[in-house]
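During the second half of the funding period, the structural biology subgroup turned its attention to how the target accommodates small molecules. The most pressing case was adenosine-5'-triphosphate, which had performed well in the primary screen but for which no bound structure existed. We therefore specified the complex as follows and requested a full 3D prediction, including the ligand pose.
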Amino acid sequence: QYILGIETSCDETAASIVKNGQEIISNVVASQIESHKRFGGVVPEIASRHHVEQITIVIEEALKQAGMTPQDLDAVAVTEGPGLVGALLIGINAAKAFAFANGLPLVGVHHIAGHIYANALVQKMEFPLLALVVSGGHTELVLMKDDGLFELIGETRDDAAGEAYDKVARVLNLPYPGGPHIDKLANESDEALQFPRAWLEEGSYDFSFSGLKSAVINYQHNAEQRGEKVNPNHLAAGFQQSVVEVLTTKTIRAAREFKVKQVIAAGGVAANKGLRTSLEEAFTKENISFYVPPIKLCTDNAAMIAAAGNSKFSAGHRGNMSMNGRPGLELDSWN
Ligand code: ATP
Ligand code: MG
Ligand code: FE
């Protein structure tokens, strides 16, 4: 079963063809990062304009690289939400037009389900499974008792982990997106400043990063006011330690409580070296299998949308021509 995946929820225009939800045949990503960099973040109007310019090229390139024609496909999967509404609509309209023109069924996919199913492209997902989703807009622990079955057991009450990374990076004058730069500084550091960890109530699987973000930003500003220079490596390392310790500790506790067979990390922040190392070490000790996709599949791409779409399509779900961009879409089960 060959699925064409299309993703335009934020600032990457992406198309990919995936076989049986696990084998990448082609995977094309046109990033707009360069255009948003000088604004220090994603500008929705600019994102939409780029998607319009790129979408047809990217879909054609995905077919070309696969050496396939639309007749070789079984369905088109597209990100329905959450994301920027104007950006989502470009992908959805392209998917509708492509599906209609080629007589193919359509299936709408939740962006975060896509991030989770990026793992299916690397190894078989085994249930019950715990997914730590850490991205630009989400920080969640999702329990999956079976394929297509999602239970949200914890989420951030304020900033997402990626958002905190990007804001701290801004204060350090690092380019957008800041996550990878903070990661690099932290890994090069031999010392770390001490910042608070937000554990919240006993037993809670929720997260909070705004207090940490403010503590780091205030530390930098206070030092500047006193005319002192902060070592950016020490600051980055302190911030990263705090994020990584909370994420690792809560993920382990949830994995134990729900007796999961497999733990996976997903989303852009799962590309973080400090987090990957910490989770790998912790789960090796726990004797629970832990996986994280290669970096290219952690950040936004369409292969993950095709993989999730494959599962949802196989479960019998179909979208139609009234599909609309849904910026606040909730992660619902399809099984
Ligand atoms: P969402 O998936 O929640 O809709 P998004 O699609 O914008 O949001 P992703 O593309 O999944 O988010 O991830 C982008 C985020 O990942 C950015 O905040 C970026 O800084 C962060 N990120 C990428 N690489 C790293 C890294 N090595 N360390 C920390 N953060 C990183
Ligand atoms: Mg992105
Ligand atoms: Fe994403």
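Two results from this model are relevant to the next phase. DSSP finds eleven helices and ten strands in the chain. The two ends are 19 Å apart (CA to CA).
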